[in-house]
Amino acid sequence: MKKLLLAAALAFAPMAHAQVEKPDVHIAVGGKTALYYLPLTITERLGYFKEEGLNVRISDFAGGTRSLEAVVGGSADVVSGAYEHTINMQSRKQSFQAFVLAGAAPQITVAIAAKLADKYKSPKDLKGLKVGVSAPGSSTNMVINYVAAQGGLKPTDIAIIGIGQGATVVAAMDQGRVDVISQTDPAVTILEKAGKVKVIAETRTPEGTQKIFGGPMPAASLYAPVEFVRKHPNTVQALTNATVRALKWMQDASPQQILATVPEEYLLGDKAMYLFAYNNVKTAYSRDGYFSDAGAKTTLKALASFNPNIKPQEINLAQTYTNEFVKKAHAKLDQKK
Q1: What ranges in the chain are assigned the alpha helix state H?
Q2: CA dihedral 291, 293, 95, 230 (to 10 degrees)
Q3: How far apart are the first and last CA of the chain?
Q4: Which of 29, 37, 160, 175 gets the most CB atoms within 10 Å of its CB?
Q5: Residues 290, 216 contacting (CB under 8 angstroms)
Q6: pLDDT tens digit sequence for 198-210
Q7: Which residues, other chains included, contact 64 with Cβ-Cβ below 8 Å and sequence gap of 6+?
């Protein structure tokens, strides 16, 4: 398996790249062990960041809001997290821009404890329940807010509890600390296969996402303050080049190659279950790194549906993302063919 990975890496010999302005880059991520962030792990583990002249340090936080806070506070440079945060931040008069898309669907599943499943008929039945999200304000929080809104509920009608991601999600449900989870895989799949939860909404696939949101919903991305993007274009380009290479590699990789690349501790002690969960979400990864106008519009509409502070007419979506760096990354890869 290691030979296969080496062959994949050698297929792309180190490419000439412009001098990066900031070779030491600190990326903040919220729940790196989740399949949601698999492209980041693949990029790191295959050495693509290093081949672009970058020394990337990745710090893991409990959820997307925590990783964003690290960048806002100046302790990290770039966030690996949900695209929607760029819209949220613009509504607060802070300019962030996403520059490469890793997730074409959120991969977030809402599931209710099996013991309560027979009482659940529609989203209005979520009222008063304790919902475990990765962290308050995170993408997992956004999805449950949106689902609840379909039942006429306000965010305050449910109790949001931050329980992190991965093994802590399983523990929270086992211990009865939450009634519902809005979470990513592999944790949800583990609970679902064990018969401990029943899925009531899912965005594991573009099709499931379309069903819930009525359109495409961009998810995991690399984003940073607009000022950082403008000051360090070569650095941002290098991050994008590496990520697009990883997305391309993932399209051709076998499940076994994926398994061989991921750190052992990410598997939560069950390789077969991890692969099952991966197969559930593999179509949710972006194939090319591009953002779509339709996806940005869907995100804005969803956020505005439950957050009165987000006024669509005041949001400039064109400033929340750019495809400029992704286009150049593809041009570079095409030159190698």
Answers
A1: 2-10, 38-45, 48-51, 64-72, 84-91, 139-149, 167-174, 187-193, 206-213, 226-231, 233-252, 255-261, 271-281, 293-306, 324-336
A2: 50
A3: 24
A4: 29
A5: no
A6: 999 999 999 999 9
A7: 30, 31, 79, 81, 82, 85, 134, 135, 137, 138, 139, 140
Cβ neighbours for 30, distance < 8 A, ≥ 6 positions apart:
60, 61, 62, 63, 64, 65, 66, 67, 68, 81, 134, 135, 138, 165
**The one-letter amino acid at 201:** A
φ/ψ of 137, rounded to 5, equals 90, -5
The least confident of 10-24, 61-75, 143-157, 235-249 is: 10-24
Q: Which two tokens stand for residue 280?
A: 């559930």
- Identify the pLDDT of residue 185: 95
Q: What is the pTM of this model?
A: 0.90
Q: How far apart are CA 35 and CA 78, in angstroms?
A: 19
The pair of structure tokens assigned to 207 is: 């099709």
pLDDT the model gives residue 17: 55
pLDDT at residue 15 in the model = 42
